[in-house]
């Protein structure tokens, strides 16, 4: 399955960033309201593998709801893996879309794995969508917020 890896510098400690991404997901919209306007849990418990949430991602001026499942937690390497189960991305671009967020000292690494809906889709468009909308924009504010600046 193809993947895109992107790293973003942050000012937050890896522990704080991991805590938000693993157990305090309801606060994501406080950190980046322009990128992720809301996250609501509707099945399971916060921070529980298998829990399902409704996430809204902002893209091209629209709020696009998605169903996202918490797939895996790895405390030792401070990574969290999510699988998109429904919404705009799956309806328009992908058969499968999964992302892992790993917090490290001064950096967050996003690894996105996807299966394109159609081989006719332009690879650059998909990578741009992933990089600009779901990675870079979503991580600017949390790093500032979590560092206390």
TrEMBL record:
Gene3D superfamilies attached to this UniProt entry: 3.30.530.20
Segments forming domain Bet v I/Major latex protein: 1-138
Any one biological process term the GO annotation gives: defense response
Protein name per Swiss-Prot or TrEMBL: MLP-like protein 43
InterPro entries associated with the record: Bet_v_I/MLP (IPR000916), MLP-like_ligand-binding (IPR051761), START-like_dom_sf (IPR023393)
């Amino acid at each position: 399955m193809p993947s895109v890896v992107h790293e973003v510098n942050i000012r937050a400690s890896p522990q704080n960033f991991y805590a938000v991404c693993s157990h305090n997901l309801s606060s994501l919209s406080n950190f980046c309201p322009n990128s992720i306007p809301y996250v609501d849990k509707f099945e399971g418990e916060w921070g529980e593998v298998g829990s399902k949430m409704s996430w809204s991602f902002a893209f091209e001026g629209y709020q696009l709801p998605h169903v996202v499942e918490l797939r895996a937690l790895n405390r030792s390497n401070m990574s969290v893996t999510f699988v998109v189960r429904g919404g705009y991305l799956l309806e328009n671009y992908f058969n499968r879309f999964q992302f892992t967020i790993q917090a490290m000292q001064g950096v967050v690494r996003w690894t996105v794995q996807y299966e394109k809906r159609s081989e006719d889709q332009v690879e650059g468009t998909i990578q741009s969508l992933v990089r600009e909308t779901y990675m870079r924009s979503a991580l600017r504010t949390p790093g500032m917020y979590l560092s206390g600046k």
